[in-house]
Amino acid sequence: MGKDADIARRIQQISLPFIPYGRQQIGEDDIEAVVEVLRSDWLTTGPQVARFEEAVAAFAGGRHGVAVSSGTAALHAAMHAIAVGPGDEVIVPAITFVATANCAAYLGATPVIVDVDPATLLIDPEQVRQHITPRTRAIIAVDYAGQPCDYASLRQIADEHNLYLVADSCHSLGAEYRGRRVAEIADLTVFSFHPVKHITTGEGGMVVTNTAELAERMRRFRNHGISTDHRQRESLATWFYEMTELGFNYRISDIGCALGLSQLKKLPDWLARRREIAALYTAALQNIAEVQPLHAAGDVMHAWHLYVVRLAASVDRAAVFQRMRAKNIGVNVHYLPLHLHPYYRQRVSPAVLQLPAAEAAYGQILSLPMHAGLTDDDVMRVVSTLWQAVAGAC
């Protein structure tokens, strides 16, 4: 009887569906929007690109949007727009995806990696202030997990030192800081439309800015540094174009932008659902002493791209990860601190090789599934499995 019960338990475990940490939501309306473009004359550099740029910029609180092929391309374009180059320094937080630092390195600048606030894992403004030098050109603030940074402090520091403030808001489309959207505060705000983000274009990204000159420079940059694109030349009935600066092919397709426009209509509802899911997690996790959610500030509207918890130091995070995955719960870890990647470990100064808040957090953090398609039962299954995993009962 005991053997039969064990077999039944194993069969049930195998049959439980996998819950990924993030995933896209695609409806028939999205498919129809893409098909309509496929039947049109313009698959790229067409009218859907401008429409998507205008819609996202308006939603984010900025005047100009420049859509590109990925969030990484958007970060690269932002650095190019503010003329970052060799000899410059760009301050970045230790806890972020590598693209945040790479975008400065692509242009020959030095990413200066600073520590984070241990409660939120957002860039620490005091650490920023301490690392400013005459070579500092910009601060890139990362809205980790969907929570806006301390933009009041960062804006003050940037203004005092005549620096650009760039918001890496790839996690935070739809978030607000003290009642303001981030694009109203930062000089450039960067978004990603990867499938695990709030809306998707397949792959894609955008920079939103209130400065027309920066937007125009990024539009050239995404198109090989050429001053006009194919549709503009078509409308002017001319073949002539000139390359005025070195750029890349970072164009986004009308296919992707049509998908993004369709998705954007649903974003308010998806954001509301993410906030409901976060509230469910927070309430349920109060019963697990060894699990602590990251602090969420009271003066922000969190976008909840990720729901990150911190395990007690006594808990074996690797074991919990494996136990959760064995139960088809797609937990993840975001991120290995920048200065611990081999590439940057070999290139940063010895003083940067120890960032205690980031390093301590990395050994304990765990990202739980978070996307608008989760049901309440999914959330309870995640929490129940986490409780068992922490107790070593899986």
Question: What structural keywords apply?
Answer:
394 residues; alpha/beta; Aspartate Aminotransferase, domain 1; Aspartate Aminotransferase, domain 2; 7-stranded mixed sheet
Structural summary, described in words:
The protein has 394 residues and is an alpha/beta fold. The protein has two domains: 144 residues, Aspartate Aminotransferase, domain 1 (Alpha-Beta Complex); 237 residues, Aspartate Aminotransferase, domain 2, CATH 3.40.640. It is built from 15 helices and 13 strands. The chain has a seven-stranded mixed sheet with strand order 1-9-8-5-4-2-3, sandwiched between helices. Helix 4 packs across helix 8, helix 11 packs parallel to helix 15 and helix 12 crosses helix 15. The protein starts with a helix and ends with a helix.
In short:
This protein is α/β, with parallel strands linked by helices and 394 residues long. The chain has helices spanning 2-15, 28-38, 47-60, 71-81, 99-105, 125-130, 151-160, 212-221, 230-236, 254-264, 267-285, 317-326, 342-345, 356-362, 376-391, and strands at 64-68, 89-93, 110-114, 136-142, 164-168, 176-177, 180-181, 188-192, 205-209, 291-293, 300-301, 307-311, 365-368. The model has no long low-confidence stretch (mean pLDDT 94).
CATH fold topology of the largest domain: Aspartate Aminotransferase, domain 2
The biggest beta sheet reads: 7 strands, mixed
Shape descriptor: globular
Strands ordered across the widest β-sheet: 1-9-8-5-4-2-3
Please describe the topology of this protein:
Blueprint: H1 2-15, H2 28-38, H3 47-60, E1 64-68, H4 71-81, E2 89-93, H5 99-105, E3 110-114, H6 125-130, E4 136-142, H7 151-160, E5 164-168, E6 176-177, E7 180-181, E8 188-192, E9 205-209, H8 212-221, H9 230-236, H10 254-264, H11 267-285, E10 291-293, E11 300-301, E12 307-311, H12 317-326, H13 342-345, H14 356-362, E13 365-368, H15 376-391
Parallel strand pairs: 2-3, 2-4, 4-5, 5-8
Antiparallel strand pairs: 1-9, 6-7, 6-11, 8-9, 10-12, 12-13
Helix pairs in contact: 2-10, 3-10, 4-5, 4-8, 11-15, 12-15
